[in-house]
Write a structure and sequence with these properties.
homotrimer; 474 residues; mainly alpha; TIM Barrel; 3-stranded parallel beta sheet; 9 strands; globular; isomerase (chains A, B, C); Uronate_isomerase (chains A, B, C); Uronate isomerase (chains A, B, C)
């Protein structure tokens, strides 16, 4: 690995085909979308950043420690989480100088070659911080100091970055138990940035969530409903959904192990719920309960208009030892094979043809793009496809998404891009990658005479801006 | 969406790579196949068209109402089937002016951007009807009138189009209960067009088909066999297969939910059949029965020489409400994950090495191309691979088919193109797309020096013409 | 098919993109790796070749009969194994002139168009034997005579070819029952070629292997351990692993039907083992036993440092009739859908975070690349990804491997190329294809400005030479 100081550049034509005919079209298409405002309808930024508007601490705290994408790769090559100073589950933390942790990233930055992380980080380094040399062992301190100092400047406060990034709207994701205080503070502050929430009920709908019993209790306290009866529990959801909608939410989000849905009678559902709250639910009961909840949430969406998002198929916290020591969200989540055609039928039998209902589907199982998701979205009025998600949110993954959903689903059953990130500084980079990939994809269709360029020019603006606004009712 | 009148063109190089080296080769290869006659060995055109040779009614009746590919996309965006005038299951139909239905297509034609439907329709508009402006809201009436008037001209009668399309042979698909009268009329008419049938026994072999009981009864009446005894039932199949073969059939076709085959003893099969005809078969019995039928059909193919086709893995009529109201075939069929290696073993254990037996496999599960289908076809003498099917019958899907079957299966275990359509006018467009994609695919291999151009030139003719004739014994 | 004498050439730019920008980069990258020594850490060449250094018999014995890739394609098109002179299971063999068998290959060489076999064979014909006309019916005898005569020359003896091929190291694969005599002879001979073994225990760890009972008995005789007790059995493995390591082995290799692992207590494992040796194990017991063995092997690897390889997901000898008549390894092995996330968890729960443990994963199910394998390897320190395997060891398959593992796994969790072949003469061709595909893949990333060329130049050397040496501890 070289340690010489080498230039860092973002090429204007990055991600466009090297074929001159395609590249020329891609450039013209990109000119239509490069400067459009960012619509970020699904993500995990922390609303306290925008409420408090305090400076970020340093390069390591901002760019390395919260980003699974980044530290999982270092971990995979034998760098321990303690060596990076990742907080442990018990709140303790190895005493590591953040500058030294940063050095581990710098020394191993070659591991990210070709990955989306390297594209996003280099974009941040170049465009946000104005760095013009590459990150490596020799430039590690220069990077650390430059970034850490910059973060103390007013121009790098969260709200200033929000504005500089040209974010028209960003959605965060909160539990039903969240008082949404930060969102209230943002609105009360008079600041013009639009930060909305989304209703993510996992802890109160998943009997296998480790916080389920305590979360359910708090759910009752917050809502004043008898959440240990099925009808009271459903009323509590309705109440909190209305509260979220009032705070700006236009969507709900559901992260289940599978896409299973169910259509139990009220009596059956009530009986199952009793078993769940009694703590005697088997794994199959828990799965059925989650399945029924999706259908209940769809019913509520029909009433309150919240757009429903389903993010299924993840085995959370797969690394047992790491989970025991460091807790959740340590880069050990793994995709699972996921089935949709049978799984969604109970819900679709009830609501699939409802004009007022929208369900946006995601997947970690790309084999379903052409086989299941595009055929479903290309038929059911209620169904739309979310963009390439998580492990697939890279140029190759986005390209496969388009290539495998186009034939049956077209472009207009998709909803534009989600950055789905807590890495705030990378948001412009991520949207830029998505826009470039769509431009490159459409440029190929134009250059191979499957679409006229004026159609592509209209379409690329729809994908970058109009479709997300329409799909998420923004 | 624009409403200006914009030109419609079919570029000579469409679907060829924009790389000049590849494009030049693709053009030369395409020159070998562009004007070859069409062999259509598997499809769903209506033989009454060629028997009666009556004019098609109007643009909507011809191009919109019968085409799932088209109206499912409109439906997915909230346009009801009633708004299009799609007939309901009870025979009634919303009173819709077909000109207005056409307008819905025209206004929403942007939904099809990049899809195969837009390619096929534009090809039909341009080449069959000579239209030179794009379809949109502003040209809707012009289109409707132009097409509807043209259809009254002799040059647009079914037989004239058949000849103009340079169709050397087309196969339709009929139930064993069909008297094949239209085929007889065609042969008796003295017209030279070659229209043959194929034996598609679904209603009499699937215990879960809603018409199974009545179909079985009619099967007995037509054949004079005791179709409620296993041996009589098998004899009835043999008799009808012979009848179909006499009417020109060279193949059978089987559309099962899975690829399961079985190899029961005659006693076991007979016992299972008794259960099936008694109406007491469980879902598992029905699956086993269909599995056994495939093996029985293979045994008969060995005797009568009919080539066997298997189209598995479709969940028919997934949209319950739509099925209740409008019946079958309303764009709500969905692909299922499909397994072949274990499923086909019972049949292959008996017939996989038989020189006289041919089984052509299709799939809606592309993940099986490289994992299962190509390895099977690249070993078993009896197995061949049908082309990219249905949801995958698009340039991207065809490309994936080639790219994922080439390594283990080569080109010569594939059987050329099937249009598999009831959209008669689109047949030249579909074959043209398939030929262009194969030319583009081979041009890449030539340009990357993996094959010499003379080999590709020979191969592309084999793919377009010789392989289908050989595979289907035409 | 032509029978004229047409030139055979290997183009310098083969497998590089025809886009001039990409091709120029690919050429420069390839210049870095074209002449690097071959590291072949996993394969199936016969060590007796290098021990005895006797001439190969003739073209057919060398290039056709041992190569599944080749004769399976001929078989798929109706050429019987007897017509080729393939030995039968009982040791008999059809009396076929090898020149006539070769003619069948020559006459049907068009079947291989576009496949890796044609690339490898043409490379051997051109570079190893200096042939400059294509193989076809007209040149069959010329080929047969030229190759067969060449094989009698000293320059074509196994050791001379080994040196000419610039092989720095080759690993073979042996059963624990193998005395490793050929390896000892090679070392004793004073010849400098480095030929090492690998520990492949399938016959003594798979209760469903037809040789399991006799293999177990011999395992006891060789090691002097009581291999009918669980602890004695484990000691026997440790002893043989040490013996293999002393003979140069740095790895073990495991070919299981699935990737299942287990984590039984010693008491449970011992009880299961008793059932297995009693011959009363069910299919589920056998699967659980193999699963437990993988975890035991991992535990031993932690002690003795042997790198573990897992090649799961193959249905061996799928063609029953062929297996009965000709035995194993006749081109009838078929890939199976394979699951890793749940299957590997028991083993990973114990050893996934161990710094001293390495497990290299392979697959025949490409749908797992992006969904399971890259996410696993991009997190667990113990896990690495072997290259595109067997049915996927072709340019398209290699390209998909890179494209689908890059995002989550990067390049540095992969281990370079394995040729995995018994076709000795094709080894340079196979490594050349792998190097060219990696150069082409990286050239695309460079030309699309996702990586600088100096990074790609370093990376391509890592992929071709440094990563395999490091991964396999060579």
């Amino acid at each position: 690995m070289t340690t010489a100081t080498l230039p860092l550049a973002l090429h204007d034509d990055r991600l466009f085909s090297s074929d001159p005919a395609q590249r020329a079209v891609a450039r013209r298409l990109y000119a239509q979308v490069a400067k459009l405002p960012i619509i970020s309808p699904h993500g995990h930024t922390d609303p306290s950043w925008f409420a408090g508007n305090q400076p970020f601490a340093n390069a390591t705290e901002l760019l390395l420690l919260p980003d699974h994408y980044v530290f999982r790769m270092l971990y995979s090559q034998g760098i321990t989480l303690d060596a990076l100073g990742i907080p442990r589950g018990d709140g303790s933390r190895a005493s590591i100088d953040p500058r030294e942790a940063w050095r581990l990233l710098a020394q191993n930055f070659h591991l990210f070659r070709g990955t989306p992380s390297s594209m996003w980080l280099n974009h941040v380094f170049h465009d946000v911080f104005g760095l013009r040399v590459r990150l490596d062992a020799g430039t590690s301190d220069q990077y650390y100091d430059h970034i850490t100092e910059a973060l103390q400047q007013p121009a790098f406060l969260p709200r200033a970055l929000f504005e500089r990034f040209n974010i028209e709207l960003i959605a965060t994701t909160e539990s039903p138990l969240d008082p949404l205080q930060h969102h209230a503070e943002i609105r009360a502050s008079g600041w013009g940035g639009r930060v909305i929430t989304a209703y993510r009920p996992d802890p109160v709908v998943d009997p296998e969530h480790e916080q389920f019993p305590s979360a359910l209790q708090m759910f009752g306290e917050i809502t004043g409903e008898d959440v240990y009866s099925w009808n009271g529990y459903l009323r509590a959801h309705r109440q909190r959904r209305a509260y979220f909608a009032k705070a700006g939410a236009t969507s709900t989000d559901h992260g289940h192990p599978s896409a299973a849905t169910a259509n139990l009678s009220p009596a059956e559902a009530s009986k199952l719920f009793d078993k769940v709250v009694s703590g005697k639910a088997t794994a199959a009961d828990a799965e059925l309960f989650r399945a029924q909840i999706l259908t209940e949430m769809a019913a509520m969406s029909l009433d309150d208009g919240l757009v429903m998002q389903l993010h299924p198929g993840c085995f959370r916290n797969h690394n047992h030892q790491l989970f025991e020591r460091y807790g959740r969200d340590k880069g050990a989540d793994m995709p699972l094979r996921t089935e949709y055609i049978q799984a969604l039928k109970p819900l679709l039998d009830r609501f699939g043809n409802e004009p007022g209902f929208k369900l946006i589907l995601f997947t970690l199982d790309e084999s379903t793009y052409s086989r299941e998701l595009a055929p479903l979205a290309g038929h059911y009025p209620a169904l739309f496809l979310g963009p390439a998600w998580w492990f697939h949110d890279a140029p190759e993954g986005m390209w496969r998404f388009r290539e495998q959903t186009l034939s049956s689903g077209g472009f207009y059953n998709t909803v534009g891009f989600n950055d789905d990130t807590r890495a705030f500084l990378s948001i412009p980079a991520r949207h830029d990658v998505a826009r470039r990939v769509d431009c490159a994809f459409l440029a190929k269709l134009v250059a191979e005479h499957r679409m006229d360029e004026d159609e592509a020019a209209e379409l690329v603006v729809d994908l970058a801006y109009n479709l997300p606004k329409k799909a998420y009712k923004l």
